[in-house]
Amino acid sequence: MALSWVLTVLSLLPLLEAQIPLCANLVPVPITNATLDRTEDTIFLREYQTRQDQCIYNTTYLNVQRENGTISRYVGGQEHFAHLLILRDTKTYMLAFDVNDEKNWGLSVYADKPETTKEQLGEFYEALDCLRIPKSDVVYTDWKKDKCEPLEKQHEKERKQEEGES
Q: Which of 18, 60, 87, 154 has its Cβ near the most Cβ atoms within 10 Å?
C-alpha cells in the first residue's frame, strides 16, 4: 500500500515542476541582439522626467553586460546595476534594481505606449508581490501631465537635422 502511494506521488512530481512559479518573470535573461536591437554595449540615454510640474532632463551612458542580463550606469562615481526582465508581452519589460539588497531593491516597468494594459500591469503587480513590495509604494507617471514633450520634440528635430547633415 505504501509503495503504491509513493509511486503515485512520485509520478505527480513532473506536474508540479511544470507549474509557473510566482517569480518566474523575475529571472534575468542574457541580452542578445534579439532582446536589444543594437550591437554596441554602450547606450547613450536621454531621460525626460516630469517632476513637480517641471521637466528634468538628464543624459547618461548605459553599459550592457549581455551575459548576465544587466544594464549599469554610474551615479555619483558608483556603478548601479539593473537586471533586464522580459515579460510575456514582449512590448513590455522591467528593470529590477538592487536585487540582492531587500532594503533597497526596486522595480520599474516600461511599455511601448503611455497607458499600460491590464495584462502589462498584472505582470508588474505579480513581480511586486514576489518581491513583497506594497502597491502603495508604486510611483505612477501620468503622461497627461508631461512637461517634457516640447523639449523631447526639439531634441528629436535636432537629431534628425544632424543625421541629414552627416
A: 87
Best-predicted range by mean pLDDT (26-30, 42-46, 54-58): 54-58
Residues 90 and 111: their CA atoms lie apart, in Å, by 9
Dist. CA 16–CA 85, nearest whole Å: 24
* b/e code 69-94 from CB counts within 10 Å (16+ = b): bbbeeeeeeeeebbbbbbbeeeebbb
DSSP 76: T
Structure letter (DSSP) for residue 91: T
Residue with cell 505582470: 123
The helix or strand, by DSSP H or E, that contains position 16, with its residue range, turns out to be: helix 2-18
